[in-house]
């Protein structure tokens, strides 16, 4: 074990840094006010880009699954095509 002060923590040290629920809520609201929210046009664009990407990935995974499935059946069936 290390005797470094950076590793050890004294009891009660964390209690000084804790904030109450009201302070936490005020800080959350203050941070959310800093957020730059997307416009409706940007939101629709982002949604469409994500949907196209997800559908593309579904297609790739489906084709790989089909291909590997057929390969496994071919290998375990003795290589015969029926």
From TrEMBL:
Q: Where in the cell is it found?
A: Cell membrane; Membrane
- Major place of localization? membrane
> Which BP terms from GO are recorded?
intracellular protein transmembrane transport; protein secretion; protein targeting; protein transport by the Sec complex
Gene Ontology MF terms: protein transmembrane transporter activity
Q: How does it sit in the membrane?
A: Single-pass membrane protein
GO CC terms in record: plasma membrane
Database matches in Pfam families: SecE (PF00584)
UniProt-listed InterPro entries:
SecE_bac, SecE_sf, Translocase_SecE/Sec61-g
Concerning its family, UniProt says: Belongs to the SecE/SEC61-gamma family.
User: What HAMAP family does its record include?
Assistant: SecE
Subunit structure of this entry?
Answer: Component of the Sec protein translocase complex. Heterotrimer consisting of SecY, SecE and SecG subunits. The heterotrimers can form oligomers, although 1 heterotrimer is thought to be able to translocate proteins. Interacts with the ribosome. Interacts with SecDF, and other proteins may be involved. Interacts with SecA.
Q: What is this protein called?
A: Protein translocase subunit SecE
Species of origin reads: Nocardioides islandensis
């Amino acid at each position: 074990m290390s005797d470094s002060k950076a590793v050890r923590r004294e009891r009660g040290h964390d209690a000084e840094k804790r904030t109450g629920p009201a302070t936490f809520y005020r800080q959350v609201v203050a941070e959310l006010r800093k957020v730059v929210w997307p416009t409706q046009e940007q939101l629709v664009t982002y949604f469409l880009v994500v949907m196209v990407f997800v559908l593309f990935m579904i297609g790739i995974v489906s084709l790989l699954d089909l291909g590997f499935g057929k390969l496994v059946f071919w290998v375990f069936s003795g290589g015969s095509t029926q």
